[in-house]
Amino acid sequence: MGNALREASGLGPREPDVPGGETFTETGADLPRSAFADAPGHVTGIFVPEVDDPDLLAQGSRGAGVVLDVGVSARATAQRAPQAGGGTLQIRERGDAVRLPITREALESLPGLKDWIVEVDLQHDLPVSQGLGMSAAGSLAACLAVSELLGLPPRSAVEAAHRAEVRLHGGLGGVVSILGGGVEVRRRAGLPPHGVVERTPMVQGFFLGTLDRPVPSPPLLSNPEFLLRVRRAGERWLSELGPPPIRWEALLSVFEVFTDELGLAPLPLREAMLKLRQEGCRCAQTMLGNTLLAWAPDEDAEERLIRTFRQAKLTLRRVHVGREGARSRPGPGHAEVRASERL
Asked: What class has domain 1-13+29-331?
């Protein structure tokens, strides 16, 4: 296992942070440099909030979800500011300035950022605030790309993204979930070594159907009454998932009962879910969004699934279980760095 992987996982002694300037020692150091990173989306089907620990790195959730084969790509450029503390940060989505408070807080917490002129351009493959893990993926991809430029270890990026997501109530475990691929079950909350994640690699396609009505997570995840309600439902059903390997239909069965007990889906999603289940499909709501995760056992059922989604005016997407977690792509002459725990 490489030292960079040990840093991202918390399994080994941490390398000292390298001052940002030491990455730019070759000729042309005053010119902007670029780095790239990718982070997959993720759907949570069941979770149990764990937010009482004073250490944000130990907060998050127990639960289970599926890493997706699409997500967020980030391109970052950095140039040393003319004077210490004179740095700036710009965040764009496909070239247009955007307000992404979780991503901004995560980036601004990176050591030494204030001494650099940094621009980050993100490309989200899926809609934000729809239970598809875009806030976690966006902040982690951005932090990995910028950390590469500033000479920071991957662990710095992972911690920054996790802290921002938890503190601003964007999610409770989205970052740790996408440090690897497959179907994941979070047995203990938080980043490793606090948290424990079990993964089952899987080749599996399924569908996402999204209602054009975003569900911002912060109002829900900052509500103690809502968290208690989720905890009761999650505690009741999470124990149904045994040790890996997790079976696909067993996972969807747990997602379904959690969806039904929590009862968050608006009427159009409830009607679509009921119809799909009556037609032999498995279907549950992604947490927390107006999106359905649906799977058909055969081609005939798949045709009915697609027809039902279209009749309900849901945006239809076919996706697959992702094989990989977040990773940086620093460019020619440098090795790819994965932000994954040891599985």
From this structure: alpha beta
